[in-house]
Amino acid sequence: MPDNQTARIEWRDGVIPVSTQFDDPYFSNASGLEETRHVFLAGNDLPARLTGGFHVAELGFGTGLNMLALALMWEGPQMIRFTSFEAYPMAPADIATSLDAFPEVKPIAAPFLDAWAQGARSFTVGHVAVEVITGDARETLAAWDGQADAWFLDGFSPQKNPELWGDDMMRAVGAHTGQGGTFATYTAAGHVRRKLADAGFTVTRVAGYGRKRHMSKGTMR
């Protein structure tokens, strides 16, 4: 995956952005925000675990919806951290159009949209300090010196974007997870679950959102 290339998208039904690089939508056809809450927030037992300094990391920033859902959930007053890895950042106008589908997040999205339009990749939304690291995650995650308390594994599907779900990537996720840290992902693909288990997680398959029968979550052993 080349570094720092802008995402190329087309619009499904005028509201759902679809990556033409990976032929995959950025969020659920039904309700992307509710899917985020089910998969990534509840899947990591949030907000119950949140406390000042808690660090969430993510593979696949996309529209920023997961980050905004986290910021909407966390009212502080202490700050938490959010680091996301994205190879193909979306254009500001495309993100703004995408978020029109979610009126609930629009009131808190302005600082993010303003910062993104100015080219900033580090900014604050509510009580969340955000950093988006652009480039090939196979390189940028390996070079990262951070440790996450929870992971949102939200890359495009393993079938469409296998590089982001490879052995080395899942081992890197494990290596950058703190003691007792967790992950959650919409995919229940057996090869992904096995790689995460090999990376040190106790992996569980649980009920997915909507028409997706299963998803995966886990805790670092």
Structure, described:
This protein is of the alpha/beta class and 221 residues long. The chain has a single domain (9-220), classed as Rossmann fold, CATH 3.40.50.150. 29% of the residues lie in helices and 28% in strands. It contains seven helices and eleven strands. It has helices spanning 32-41, 65-73, 92-99, 106-117, 137-143, 167-175, 190-198, and strands spanning 9-12, 16-19, 24-25, 55-59, 80-86, 122-125, 128-134, 148-153, 177-185, 201-207, 214-220. Strands 6-7-5-4-8-9-11-10 form an eight-stranded mixed sheet, with helices on both faces. It has a three-stranded antiparallel sheet with strand order 1-2-3, with no helix packed on it. The chain is globular, with a radius of gyration of 16 Å. The two termini are 31 Å apart.
Keywords:
29% helix, eight-stranded mixed β-sheet, three-stranded antiparallel β-sheet, Rossmann fold, alpha/beta, 221 residues, globular, 7 helices, single chain
Topology diagram in text:
Blueprint: E1 9-12, E2 16-19, E3 24-25, H1 32-41, E4 55-59, H2 65-73, E5 80-86, H3 92-99, H4 106-117, E6 122-125, E7 128-134, H5 137-143, E8 148-153, H6 167-175, E9 177-185, H7 190-198, E10 201-207, E11 214-220
Parallel strand pairs: 4-5, 4-8, 5-7, 8-9
Antiparallel strand pairs: 1-2, 2-3, 6-7, 9-11, 10-11
Low-confidence runs (pLDDT<50, min 5 residues)? none
Number of domains: 1
Biggest sheet architecture: 8 strands, mixed
Helix content: 25-40%
Strand content: 25-35%
Compute the separation of the termini in Å: 31 Å
Q: Which sequence of strands runs across the widest sheet?
A: 6-7-5-4-8-9-11-10
Structural class: alpha/beta
Query: What letter string, H or E per element, gives the SSE order?
Result: EEEHEHEHHEEHEHEHEE
Note the total helix count: 7
| CATH architectural label | 3-Layer(aba) Sandwich
The name CATH uses for the topology is: Rossmann fold
**What name goes with the CATH superfamily?**
Vaccinia Virus protein VP39
The overall average pLDDT, rounded, is 93
